[in-house]
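pls design
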């Protein structure tokens, strides 16, 4: 043991909703622990979301342990500041042993068993370590972006705040997942000319047959489906989230409707060279596939309604309001008046600071329900760690309770 090394049963890395949920259960079980957070508990919500950001899942799904949503609008969608207030309220509800602005820089196996954790200038010896730092660490921006003329302003979706942040002119949004589709709407409502590179992200309607689709899926027990029972198994973790929005009470995000109203849609971006963007000829395929996913979800709801003998209003089938003309012309950014590019193509995890044999050849952590093959080493808060809600307010409590039971060796009921 090194000089000044401190002992503690459990170290939690990451003080967001996952790490805080883990702490809540450990506090209830009187297990001594500490949470190291590189920034602040609300950092991702405060500093990596645009001004008009809101949840895409209804408020009633916000179920952090001991801290369910208690507002007046359970079927509404919390805006950015409301989310921040909700998380801060959770912190204040039980005063966790949270150390903010303390980044963990190294985790190795300890010669005496357990793990050696280095945070700032402190060294800790822990028998259990819970990695709750998420999977969204390094913003993805393609290498060729550095060769684009510096006169064109570039930023990643995590740095976008509002339209006034961008120079006057048209905007190229790359990526049509949740962030890309919602940012397009944000810009469109500010009357900015927008070009969108449409990828393979699926879409889902906000409401169907008189209810939010989330309500239907909850009744159908979709949110109880475990990754082990998912048709894609582990592949579910690599699927892009469906685009939809909770803005202004919630509604569909139909890219075809955006196109009809003036947004220019293109296929998947291949590259940008000499300020000319080239696209794959897949725009129609991507739009059709997104619509098919939405239609399949509706069919599953129809089948459930029929099977259960429920009464619900009927709806006419969706009819596309716009079709691409089949052209795949390269886009000259300057000729199109594009002065900004927003990269909405996701993040890469970064676990370089963990020197513990819990990764596969692609440097992805391997676990079952968050438990790794390394004794006392766990992951929490990752997409489909156990269920769809594992990385969200709706399911992280269940996962945290399970991992708490692994640490204490006794059953820990879900709050």
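designed seq:
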């Amino acid at each position: 043991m090194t000089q000044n090394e401190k002992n503690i049963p459990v170290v939690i890395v990451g003080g967001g909703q996952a790490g805080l949920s883990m702490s809540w259960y450990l506090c209830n079980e009187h297990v001594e622990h500490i949470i190291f957070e590189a920034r602040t508990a609300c950092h991702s919500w405060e500093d990596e979301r645009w001004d008009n950001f809101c949840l895409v899942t209804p408020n009633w799904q916000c179920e952090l342990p001991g801290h369910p949503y208690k507002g007046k609008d359970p079927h509404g969608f919390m805006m950015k500041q409301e989310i921040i207030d909700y998380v801060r309220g959770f912190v204040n509800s039980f005063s966790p042993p949270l150390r903010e602005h303390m980044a963990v820089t190294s985790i190795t196996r300890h010669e005496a068993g357990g793990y050696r954790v280095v945070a700032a200038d402190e060294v800790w010896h822990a028998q259990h370590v819970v990695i709750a730092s998420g999977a969204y660490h390094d913003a993805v921006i393609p290498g060729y972006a550095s060769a684009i003329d510096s006169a064109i302003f570039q930023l990643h979706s995590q740095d976008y705040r509002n339209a006034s942040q961008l120079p006057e002119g048209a905007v190229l949004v790359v990526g049509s997942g949740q962030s890309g589709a919602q940012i397009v709407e944000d810009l469109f409502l500010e009357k900015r000319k927008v070009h969108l590179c449409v990828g393979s992200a699926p879409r889902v309607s906000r409401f169907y047959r008189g209810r939010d689709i989330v309500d239907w899926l909850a009744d159908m027990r979709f949110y109880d489906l475990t990754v082990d029972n998912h048709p894609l198994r582990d592949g579910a973790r690599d699927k892009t989230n469906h685009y939809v929005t909770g803005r202004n009470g919630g509604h569909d995000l139909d890219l075809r409707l955006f196109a009809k109203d003036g947004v220019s849609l293109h296929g998947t971006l291949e590259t940008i060279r000499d300020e000319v963007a080239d696209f794959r000829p897949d725009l129609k395929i991507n739009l059709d596939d997104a619509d098919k996913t939405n239609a399949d979800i509706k069919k599953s709801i129809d089948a459930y309604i029929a099977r259960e003998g429920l009464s619900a209003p009927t709806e006419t089938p969706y009819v596309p309001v716009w079709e691409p003309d089949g052209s795949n012309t390269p886009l000259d950014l300057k000729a199109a008046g594009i002065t900004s590019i927003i990269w909405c193509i996701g993040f890469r995890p970064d676990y370089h600071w963990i020197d513990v044999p819990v990764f596969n050849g692609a440097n992805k952590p391997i676990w079952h329900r968050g438990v790794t093959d390394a004794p006392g080493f766990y992951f929490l808060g990752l997409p489909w760690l156990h269920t769809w809600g594992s990385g969200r307010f709706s399911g992280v409590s269940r996962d945290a309770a399970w991992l708490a039971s692994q640490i204490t060796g006794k059953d820990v009921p879900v709050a």
